[in-house]
TrEMBL record, chains A, B:
Recorded superkingdom: Bacteria
Name this polypeptide is given: Zn-dependent hydrolase
InterPro entries: Amidase_Cbmase, Bact_exopeptidase_dim_dom, Peptidase_M20
Positions bound to Zn(2+) 2: 89, 124, 377
Residues that hold Zn(2+) 1 according to the record: 78, 89, 185
PANTHER family cross-referenced by the UniProt entry: ALLANTOATE AMIDOHYDROLASE (PTHR32494:SF5), ALLANTOATE DEIMINASE-RELATED (PTHR32494)
Keywords from the UniProt entry: Hydrolase, Metal-binding, Zinc
Cofactor dependence: Zn(2+)
Cofactor binding summary note: Binds 2 Zn(2+) ions per subunit.
GO molecular function terms attached to this record: hydrolase activity, acting on carbon-nitrogen (but not peptide) bonds, in linear amidines; metal ion binding
């Protein structure tokens, strides 16, 4: 059994790093706050006797020897957050992994296979796109060179920032494929809470499509320019955001669509915007429907170019197909939960996770615990301690069963 | 006759102050660049022998004695610009006024009434709302105290910035109502160019309504939050921008509508925005139709609050009713233009101007010259030298006729 006080103590301590005045945290990937969080967690890894390595994209892995030398059973997640994040998203999975190690240490137990705990760089994608960058490079889905050269929302590149905070490691990225990969995570949605269920056995992750549109119009005077002569980049950006909503409504089902960023230049009350930047996040568990959503958006963009006399450049920031997890492990998550006396249900993940990068290469599973009010990427994000204990105990059993004792 | 080389030399010299790398200028009101522009122009006023005063809102007036002591004939405009402004908007009117003084000096002519040249603080409203702030205070339409306390887009207040750049003057604002007020300005729209006419005799200024909406939603995860559970401030802002366009189309005629600024917080690709700020600029020559546009927008805002479960705070940034200029002077502008061999037409102004603040208190007129391509509030803003000469010569004759020789 895991020690809930120890785990909660670490969640709270990490939540102090980059904490926001009104609650919550801002630890955007590779920021000073992220560095401080990394230092804290890798210190804990060393305290727990783990051998800590840092790879070329800044992923940090702490490993514990087993009876044999082969690939390890890896527990991972991330400690970067969005700009208005909570204490649990990502952090829970890493610190619960550390708690599993502590339990093994307390019991003086050497598992058959080695066990590792990892935190991956820039899972959120809030500062640098795409998301799941560290795990994507680790598992060969993303190119190290391309990622290092990627500029973030503030202009700095991943490579520069890794150097700056001292996390451009020597270990080659993706040198080891684990024996199995597990990740405990808060659901970040309302499903478990609405169903009154303690544990989600995650069947897979929905497809994610992020596109940034840059609209080039003509700046002009808001008072003197007749409507028929406008090439208003701001209006076009607004139409794209409204279209995203329409697509989600028309496709229905699981389809979600979000325009999270809109920026106008010069952004003044009486100046028609000359340019605009807008991001669109489209997701669906069904790749065919996701493609349909992408096609509808692309068609609307062409229409707007014609009707408004603007040019619109589209850049893909992230495109991940839906991923399915290991069927045997998914069932094992649900059975383990029930054996421990918790209710469980199978469910897909709406959010992207590091686990999806491992799924094509090794047996992979995720454990979800409820998010109060379905709220995440919000400083109010909350999961109760007893729910966290349930999830961490399921994780412990999964590790024990895959690592062998 | 005015000296075109002298006038163009000054337009170019002032265009160097706050010049942008790719052409055009950024001299937002009360910025360092505005201070440098003010220093340059008030230096020229002193060189021309004018007595220069600065009032409590930073308006600068240079005056030239007449045979009598009564109220002066005032020529004015502004030298602040939007962030992506051209060389002519405002600047032309001030420097043509200075050119009129130079001509009087060259001729050694003492007019019957005194003649003055002024530039008014923050006509653009691009940094601080409302626009026409200096002339509004000068003519008693706006409160000095309220304006001094107004914070701009960067948080600094008008009062602080006036102190900082040394233009919080001693002269009480609005101590003198002029005998007459004249303003030469670029049209900033396409009408004169499309009609092939040299001089616009401006009949008045359309009504201006600026509103800032602040939308409070709930930030949440873009992937896990079902569409039905969203309170997306970014989507609501986009709907407001699209509604502005619809209102302009439905009301038709002169109605224009612009959403020039949209800002989302936190503004990240995978976070539903928790809050948004959007500005809407509505204008019409007919106040009843302008009220209709305002009412339609207000109704839509209430609808969006209900359907999206957000709260929307509306703040008026500027509200000026349509203004008509002095009928005798409007006719005189057209007649003078024709006497000088130029084509002329009567037309309303789509942009707000300092002249509209004087119109209720003294006989007022404006002279428009064409804007190439109808482009303004854009670094490409252009009016040809011969068109400028035509406008400045009409202004000279208007001053001579009103000041008496
Ligand atoms: N778990 C999580 O919030 N991941 C960030 C990537 C995403 O937007 O889904
Ligand atoms: N002339 C001019 O551009 N004035 C600024 C105020 C406005 O009309 O938006």
């Amino acid at each position: 059994r895991i020690d809930l006080d120890r785990l909660m103590g670490r969640i709270r301590a990490l939540g102090e790093v980059g904490s926001l005045p009104g609650g919550g945290v801002c630890r955007l990937a590779l920021s000073d706050a992220d560095k401080a969080g990394r230092d804290l967690v890798s210190g804990w890894m060393r305290d727990a006797g783990l051998a800590v390595t840092v790879d070329a994209i800044g992923n940090v892995v702490g490993s514990r020897k087993g009876e044999t030398d082969g690939p390890m059973v890896l527990v991972g997640s991330h400690i970067d957050t969005v700009a208005t994040g909570g204490l649990y998203d990502g952090n829970l999975g890493v610190l619960a992994g550390l708690e599993v190690i502590d339990v093994l240490n307390d019991l003086g137990l050497t598992t058959h296979h080695p066990v590792g705990v990892a935190f991956f760089t820039n899972e959120e994608g809030a500062r640098f796109a795409p998301d799941m960058m560290g795990s994507g490079v680790h598992q060969g889905a993303l190119s190290l060179e391309t990622c290092l050269a990627t500029a973030g929302i503030d202009g700095a590149t991943v490579g520069e920032e890794l150097q700056r905070i001292g996390y451009a490691g020597e270990t080659p990225a993706g040198s080891v494929t684990p024996r199995a990969y597990f990740e405990l995570h808060v659901e970040q949605g309302p499903v478990l809470e609405e169903a009154g269920i303690a544990i989600g056995a995650v069947t897979g992750v929905q497809g994610i499509s992020w596109t940034e549109y840059t609209v080039a119009g003509v700046s002009n005077h808001a008072g003197t320019t007749p409507m028929r002569l406008r090439h208003d980049a701001g209006y076009v950006a607004a139409e794209i955001a409204v279209e995203a909503r329409r697509i989600a409504r028309d496709i229905g089902g699981d389809q979600v669509a979000t325009a999270g960023a809109i920026e106008l230049d010069p952004g003044l009350v009486n100046v028609i915007a000359r340019s605009a930047r807008i991001t669109v996040d489209l997701r669906n568990t069904d790749d065919l429907l996701l493609r349909e959503a992408e096609a509808q958006m692309a068609a609307r963009v062409v229409e707007l170019e014609k009707s408004e006399g603007v040019t619109i450049a589209a850049r893909s920031l992230a495109r991940f197909a839906p991923v399915g997890f290991d069927e045997a492990f998914v069932s094992l998550v649900a059975e383990t939960a029930q054996k421990l006396g918790h209710t469980a249900m199978r469910m897909p993940s709406g959010a992207g996770h590091d686990a999806q990068m491992f799924a094509p290469n090794c047996p992979t599973a995720m454990v979800f615990v409820p998010s109060a009010g379905g709220i995440s990427h919000n400083v109010e994000e909350y999961t109760a301690p007893d729910e966290i204990a349930a999830g961490a105990n399921v994780l412990l059993q999964m590790v024990l069963s895959a690592a062998g004792r």
